[in-house]
Amino acid sequence: MAIERTLSIIKPDAVAKNVIGQIYARFEAAGLKVVAARMAHLSRQEAEQFYAVHKERPFFKDLVDFMVSGPVMIQVLEGENAILKNRELMGATDPKKAEAGTIRADFADSIDANAVHGSDGPDTAKAEVAFFFAGMNVFAR
Ligand code: UDP
Description:
By secondary structure, the chain is α+β, with helices and mostly antiparallel strands. It has helices at about 10-15, 20-30, 45-50, 60-65, 80-90, 105, 120-135, and strands spanning about 5-10, 35-40, 70-80, 115-120. The structure holds uridine-5'-diphosphate.
């Protein structure tokens, strides 16, 4: 199995609920290591660029408004099949449809305030890690 890296964001709703530690515990229990992390309050421009793929979607403005509404915790997770594993831990985009025991089922309130982001494939993982951590030391653990 391949060791992968993926980008994870704990979104403003989950940071406001003070559940960063509970979400990190789930990564750790699943064998995912945090190899880089930083807290940030995204600018509008950063949020718009990060979600540029959605810019024609009707929810784009609300999504950007939400992502800049408070601090986020951004991390690179590493482990076997990290990309898919993180997506499984997150659960479906809409928390009402997320499987019981997933992060979104347990901590998200709605499809827009849905607690976490995770890269959805190898190409996006690479681009998203570079987006937030380019030029920074991302350690091997
Ligand atoms: N989103 C939304 N309304 C929708 C669909 C998506 O607000 O109808 C937001 C939601 O925060 C989601 C993000 O846009 O996490 C990106 O959507 P995507 O389909 O990529 O879902 P994800 O990969 O985050 O599960």
